[in-house]
Amino acid sequence: MSAGSEGVAIPGAGARPRVRAPTVPMGRLMVAALLAVLALLILLPVAVLVLGSFLSEPPRALQVNWSGLTLGNYVEIFASRDFAELISTSVGVASIGTVGALVIGTALAWLAARTDAPGRRVLDAVAIMPMMVPPLVGGFAWDMLASPKSGILNIFLRAFHLPVVLNIYTVGGIGFVFAIYYAPYVYLFAAAALRNMDPALEEAAALCGATRFGTVRRVTFPLILPALLSSSLLVFVLLIQLFSIPAVLGEAGSVHVMSVRIWELIGFTPPKVNQASALGVLMLAITVTLVLLQNRATARRSFVTVAGKGLRPTPVALGALRWPSAVLGFAYLALVVLLPYAALLFIALRKSLFFSTVAAMANPKQFSLDQIAVAVGDPVVRLSLVNSLLVALGTVALGSLLYFAVAYIVHRTKLPGRRALELISVMPVAIPGLIIGLGYLWSWISIPAGIYGTLWIIVAAYVSQFSPQGVRAIAGSLVQIHPELEEGARLCGAGFLYTLRRVVVPLAWPGILASMILLLVLSFRELATALFLYTSDTQVFSLTMFDFWQRGSTGLVAVLALVQSAILLVIVAIGQRIRRDPAPPDEGAVP
Amino acid sequence: MPVKCQIRGLSKNFGARPVVDHVSLDVADGEFVVILGPSGCGKTTTLRLIAGLEAPDAGTIAIDGHLVSAPAERLFVRPEKRGIGMVFQSYAIWPHMTVFENVAFPLRVRRIRTAEIAGKVRAVLERVGLAGESERPATQLSGGQMQRVALARALVYDPALLLFDEPLSNLDLKLRERLRVELRELQQHAGITSIYVTHDQAEAVELADRIVVMEGGRVAQVGPPAELYRRPRTRFVAEFIADANIFEGAVTEHAGPEIVRVLTEEGRELLAGIDRPVSLGERVHVVVHPEDCSITHPHESREGSHPVRILQRRFQGVSTRYTVEWNGAAFDVVALGTSAALAEGAEARIWIAPERARVILRQDIAVP
User: Fold this and answer.
1) How many whole angstroms separate alpha carbon A325 and alpha carbon A108?
2) How far apart, in whole angstroms, are the C-alpha atoms of residue A488 and residue B131?
């Protein structure tokens, strides 16, 4: 490839092609610029955060009191009365969630990929739907469904005189919510592994005399074990850093986890930013270690399960178990999507939230649009909705440009420094959003560039946070474009930028679009990353919801949760629509 | 004829491995040069260096007397400024455009007026046999049609040089043979200087004015197809350009002008032509193409013919291939014609014209 020279501007190249190559190639300048941007966006905040965790003073503009270097923050964290309990609870809920997600995800994947369960094709779509429900919204909904006193499910249980009380405010309850919302991650890995598996491996076991379920246990399961291990590590990393669900469900039952504790430390008067940073660094150490472990697990996934193409594995006949299995699958959908949204809708349309019997719930006089009117009339709601949309659009615009540039250089050129670009761009996989936010808080208070307190700092934090997903989505479609399509354009006389505009971007458009939709969704619903970066003027929608919830305005929370979900649904629907009918971004096909 | 493309000492390394190693070549105006070699011999890299898709490590490339690559002078003209047309192995037809848009692309880049573009595109599509197909989406084309679009796109702006990177290798045999003929006609008609890379010797022999045989990044031999066939300089060239019997022997006598007598280890004794002086007793290779021998019944004995026994007979349509035992070792002979006269196991005689057997030096790469 002519990578080294791409983007090189040769001035005055006319009919007589005798031109000196410039001494500083543009390609290298571009790599250097991108490295600087990524360092500023991703490395700097983390570095400043780590530094801050060793300082005794909160962040101040352009000042680091080096004499204040101390291990005191760590000592204070480790010596705090409930430190052991904090860690064990954090690990405990994340572990319960991971195991639950593993069981649900694997079972659903097996039902959908390898059995004759009725409706398994629908199941395939259903199993990843919970990914569309923002965890914060899931948390609110389960608070309304299963709080021990006023939870809607408990009211029904009492009505049927069942001696069971669901309590979502416990380690088990939070672990349950974790599990149902993070099962799709396991599902994706497990279903892919099951579909790629050579059916001959299973058939051989059957011919050797193994029973149907003996085969599953002794052949199928061990073969997909690496995929399961890898996905469970991923889920554990996501859960140990998750803020929204434990923040909503944990406090009422005194279930304290690290992420929420970091937020509480910042919320102290005066804020204990240094201790929060120390705890943040500890959390970062855990997630980084686990991500490195996961990479090793993925790299060593060398069980040869992928065989020739086009092999359709014979579905396992479930016999009499067919229907119960299908019902189990759809019960999952009910738990994760249907029940929560029914509860949200019910609460959103109610005048009074004080009810304790089924009869009171059904009272038609209580139904009203009051909450919706209040929500619409609230200036904070409107401001934060606009802010969230602006932030999401800003993230998509800046993020897409940055991610495309990085993906292009990494996958389409041989420029020196591209490995470093790739490495930095995937780092945020291991950096919790909360930690990115905390790092931005430190750095942009320390560097008075007028960014702190604007929407831009939130956009910048989001662009950092989502870079692994964004780069991966664009890279996926770039690598599918044959290099000769690009080289052909160059030989036809088109310059680098013209080739990019007329050939590369139109061909990579589906991937770029998918990445943009993903970015819109992620940034519109994000909470933890913005937690330390907003002011009253730059509050985003998720924060408004969280704020109302803290103040006990449950009805408003329900309305906003529905609004947020509806907007996300519209974004995804538009994305699907455009993807089915892909139009290149310029006049491409028109003569 | 003026030189259109001049290559001097061209070298390119991938890491520590030299892929193109001091290649020099002059291509005359209007000439059709085919670079032939096995995969990994550096032929495609040489082509990409000419196109400007790779930057050389050493040497120079000049087109029409203007340097386009000269690393020693830090000179490198980007591909889009070289005015070269190229037909890729994958065709590189842009799937998001119609046939018309694909062919019009180079003209649009050159900011040619819309009315003129339509005329030029129509004319070139007619030349490649795609008249009336201009509004077809590129994704609906067959392999052969894509090949034609690729050719039209490369021809439409009258490039100084036309490069082909194994353009027919993804097509089936029948289509390949037809396109070969068309391509040669088109090239001769347009008089456009072309460099064509392939690993298929049949393609090379049919298309080329001159063939450049490459091996291990170097030029093994350059010449018109017939010369490479008749006078291969190395064993590699002899084997690559056509099927060949190659055996080792020692020179025993200077039997005439540029003719020597060679005695092989098996005890075969024959006359063979030489290109360069050899000394008596020198060990050499002898190349004999199977179709350059005649095979007859043993009673039709002829001066200088050799007695053999037929081991295997394979009918090949318009010819018959015999594997015979000649002094205890196998030897291949091809007899033209559809009737196979000799049976397996039978005695026969073979005769080889002295100038058709060639002596080559015992090394795989010629001394430059």
Assistant:
1) 9
2) 22
Is the pLDDT at A517 greater than 70, yes or no? yes
Q: Does A1 touch chain B (CB under 8 A)?
A: yes
> What is the C-alpha separation between A316 and A108, in angstroms, rounded?
14
pLDDT at A34 over 90: yes
Cβ-contact B74, A460 below 8 angstroms: no
- The alpha carbon of B335 is separated from its chain's Cα centroid by a whole number of angstroms, namely 25
Calpha distance A94→A175 (Å, rounded):
7
pTM over 0.90: no
Stretch B46-75: mean pLDDT: 93
CA nearest neighbour of A266 among A440, A113, A383: A440
From CA A393, how far away is CA A516, in angstroms rounded?
9
Whole-angstrom Cα distance, residue B63 to residue B74? Answer: 17
B82 and chain A: CB distance < 8 Å anywhere? Answer: yes
Measured between alpha carbons, how far is B227 from B208 in angstroms, rounded to an integer? 12
Residue A10 reports pLDDT greater than 50: no
pLDDT at residue A18 tops 70: no
H helical segments located in A198-335? 199-207, 212-215, 221-240, 244-249, 258-267, 273-299, 322-333
Looking at the complex, does the CB of residue B70 fall below 8 Å from at least one CB of chain A? Answer: no
Three-state helix/strand/coil letters over A386-422: HHHHHHHHHHHHHHHHHHHHHHHHHHHCCCCCHHHHH
Tell me which of B23 and A206 has the higher pLDDT: B23
Taking CB atoms and an 8 Å cutoff, what residues of chain B touch A13? 77-78, 81
Lowest mean pLDDT among A89-93, A202-206, B63-67, B280-284: A202-206
